[in-house]
Prior knowledge:
Blueprint: E1 2-13, H1 17-28, E2 33-36, H2 45-49, H3 64-67, E3 69-73, E4 80-81, E5 88-93, E6 96-101, E7 114-116, H4 133-147, H5 162-165, E8 172-173, E9 181-183, E10 196-198, E11 204-206, H6 228-237, E12 242-244, E13 247-254, E14 263-269, E15 275-285, H7 289-302, E16 316-317, E17 322-327, E18 340-346, E19 355-358, H8 370-377, E20 379-384, E21 393-397, E22 400-404, H9 411-427, E23 431-433, E24 438-439, E25 443-444, E26 469-471, H10 486-507
Parallel strand pairs: 1-2, 1-15, 2-12, 3-5, 6-24, 15-26
Antiparallel strand pairs: 3-4, 5-6, 7-9, 8-18, 10-11, 13-14, 14-15, 16-25, 17-20, 17-23, 18-19, 19-20, 21-22
Helix pairs in contact: 1-6, 1-10, 4-10
Amino acid sequence: MDETSAVIDVIVIGSGFGGAVAASRLTDAGIAVTLLERGPWRDTVATRSAGIARTTPFPRDLSLFTRLLRSLRLPGSPRLTLNRHGLFDIHVDRGVSIICSSNVGGGSHVYSGLQRLPHVANFWDGHAKDVSTASLQQHYEAVLADMGSPMASPALGLPNTTYQRYANSNVIETPSPEGPTWLGFLFPAEPGKPQTIIDANGITRNQVDVAANDDGFLGSPGGGKTSLDIAYLIPAMRKGLKIRDLCEVQSIEALGDQSPARYAVHVIDHHSGAKQRLLAANVIIAAGGLNTLRLLLRSRDGTKTLSGMPNLGRRFGCNGDFMGWWDQAEYGDITAGLPARGPFRARGPEDFPVLGGGAFPAIDRYPLPHFLKQRLRRVQWIAGIGVDAMDGVARWTGGGLRVDFNGDNSPVFARIKAGVRALVELTGKRIHYTKNPITVHPTGGACMGDSIATAVVDGNGEVFDHPGLYVADAAALPAEPGGPPSLTIAAWASHVAARFIAQRNASR
């Protein structure tokens, strides 16, 4: 194993909404940061314009079959790594299936682009000292400014929205969203006339073309979707941020007082295959909700290089995620537009839950049989989201991560399924969905709070019994926001970075 003697000031693990924002904020403050990301840089117009040399295409065309999946874990079996350049990780466990992604830029490449404030009123209040909804507001505003996200509006000229599709429906209604919705895309000044632009950071991008259907769940090669490599990482690199892609962290080791550093981070460099031991004074973990838990649990219970954290793995939730597929043949080809198309629900005397609807852009890039491709052109995915009991448990056992979650304990899933059944009854169209939740928003397990007796990290994001070790992603959220969580994760990471900077300045 290679061992570096130099001590890195801050190592950030992961480059999604937590890691990218935290690393950028610290770099802006003049702090030396090295960011470790297990996934590759993706080949896009933006990365090419930035001179990123080693990139991997999104899994389109024939590479869909080889680079769609990075890893797969089925119940009772170890996690199998299929392709280190793959896009998605699938973890199927007791009561829940979890989907994660792997890229420089994290889930921003594959999310639907919806940015919302928490649906839960006063979300941040009452969890930890000096952390409140009011104190986090400045971080929400800063992230929205960084992302340049416009508010959703008919003026954007988006086709196939639920408002258009169900405008004359007697059985489906389209309620107004709960609060404002911002969209993480670069729109043309004149709808329908996208152009290639060079932004303020010198990054080339193609404005989103909703007719071309190229900005979907398998990435945005032209840069129409505002991914985190564009908004944060490339600009921060020009200010000194060091990014190591395809560098997978295996464990974190707490060092004794005799060491010049507080932590050793054990990694595998997938470019060379070499194992390395990096020394760091501070470590910020933002590997994504599930992978942050895997790393902490493996370090504590597998390699036993960390200790303590008595509440690690507890209060795991799915943010009420529910997914289904609905064949809408009567509307024809609905692929044109953004991945997410707006809210809808069944009309009726009951207050049925609001669902989200969307389609599959870039379908022409899927190397599928003609009949299947034609079928997918008219399929709408539906998604429910809300607040579940957050009573799942993640643990390290048998050499791997195991998650136990029982959706029957959470009334939100029963309400969503009742709303789906009402849609089926009213429309006569079958909706396919699984018995157990499928989540892309794993939350909690290393929750923030006031005391080690109930939480893992404090109001600064710092692990109670491991000074200098922080959690800056969804694993630390003290509750579920009940809506798309990307903006809330980014605001939390911005808060963690601001507290880190303030403490450092005060100590000096």
